[in-house]
Amino acid sequence: ILDFQPRMSLITRTLRLASTDLFHYVCLFSFIFIGYASMGTFLLGDRLPQFQNLGNSCSALFRIVMGWDPLYRAMFRAASKSKTQSTAVVFLVFYWSWII
């Protein structure tokens, strides 16, 4: 595509050579992202509208990673209202492992 100029064609050649690795990275990232979104829906779906379904969970997780939506306190309060304390612990592991 950018072969009209040698330096610009370096970009397309690099992407062409890395396409297999990029494909595998995107597949793995998607698998992990959907897993976290499912866990967010399972943990917080009945308490927070941002996690009511998988689409909302994906959007909320993306906003959290980008730093656009500081939901931590609302999410922790919602997880703490559970009947068992283990939900709060699972939430903390879920949230901090997602951020890191």
UniProtKB/TrEMBL annotation:
GO terms for cellular component: membrane. It is found in: Membrane. InterPro entries: PKD1_2_channel, Polycystin. Its main location: membrane. Keywords: Membrane, Transmembrane, Transmembrane helix. The chain crosses the membrane at residues 22-44. It is a multi-pass membrane protein. Residues 2-67 form the Polycystin cation channel PKD1/PKD2 domain. PANTHER family: AT14535P-RELATED (PTHR10877:SF183), POLYCYSTIN FAMILY MEMBER (PTHR10877). This is Polycystin cation channel PKD1/PKD2 domain-containing protein. It comes from Cryptomonas curvata.
